[in-house]
Structure formats: C-alpha cells, structure tokens
Amino acid sequence: MLEKAEKLLDCCEIKQAIYNCAKQLAKQINPSKQYTVIVLMNGAFKFAADLLSNIALQQFNFEIHFVKTTRKQDANKFILETDFELLQQICKNKDVIVIDDVYDSGTTILTLNKQLKDITKSLLFVVLLAKTKPVIDNILVAQYVETNKWLFGYGMDYENKYRHLNSIYAI
Predict the structure, then answer these.
(1) Which helix H or strand E contains 141, and what residues bound it?
(2) Which of 7, 74, 123, 171 has the most CB within a 10 Å radius?
(3) Could you tell me which residues come within 8 angstroms of residue 148 by beta carbon, excluding any fewer than 6 positions away?
(4) Average pLDDT over the chain, rounded to an integer
(5) How far is it, in rounded angstroms, from Cα 36 to Cα 26?
(6) Residues with Cβ < 8 Å from 135, sequence gap 6 or more?
C-alpha cells in the first residue's frame, strides 16, 4: 500500500515545521500562567510530544490530558464524538491549548471551539497540518498541505496502520 502513496513531507520537513510552530507557540505562552494541554487522540500524540519538547519547558507550566475524539459521518455532515462533559470539567476557567493532527473540514476544531470558548480563560488550537485555511483566529498551523487525500504516517493512521512512519503520506 505504501508504494501507492505520495510522500508529502519527509521527517526533516516535519521537524522544521514543528520547530517553527513551537517558536510561534512559545511567543504566545505566558510563563506566569498554568496551562491545560489537551491532546486529541489518536493522531496527535506524536506531534504533541515533538511540539512540547521544542518549547523551553522551564518557561511553560502545563498539565496534559489525552482525549479520544472520533469524527463520524451522519447523512451529509460530520459529527464529532467525544466526552464533552469531561472536556468541559477539565477546561473550565483554565488557559487551554488543544493539539490536533489535521485541520480538514474543520469539524473537530470548530465543534471544540464552540463547546469550550465561553468556559475557558483562553483557548488556542495547534494543528500539525491544515488542508484548508481555518475559519477561526485562535489557531496555529505547523504546515499547510494542498491535498484532499487521506493523510497518514507520523502518528496518523490508515486503517489502523502506519502511525509509526516518520514521514507523512497521502493516498
């Protein structure tokens, strides 16, 4: 299957994009604040680890939570499935950074933005890849990609496989 896929980003391009994104994020972090970092599972775990390790952690106080999210198609639209009650408990009255793998249709980010923006002190989204320009301002994008294909590798799966790859592919 891998031989049919197009390599979009190799490991060096990914590392550079994450490094640049970490620099942008570091500029927005207030060292006197305690942050709540939400990592959306499963695809964002590798990105989150590399992103956070690129920030001077002595200047960044945070607690981290891993939250499972699933995007399901219902009729002509996508619906986000997650434990919104738990998310709201974790994020209420806190400075929150949500880390995700891909901004595609915007379903995940836009739904979470709507659910969390009024209950948090501050809310920022950070995504590894964006296929389209996000329609919200409180988002950092490590890398834009021009494709409508399925992305996998670097933590993202294709049929529950290939998360371990160090490059990002499209099929």
Answers:
(1) strand 139-144
(2) 123
(3) 131
(4) 90
(5) 15
(6) 106, 110
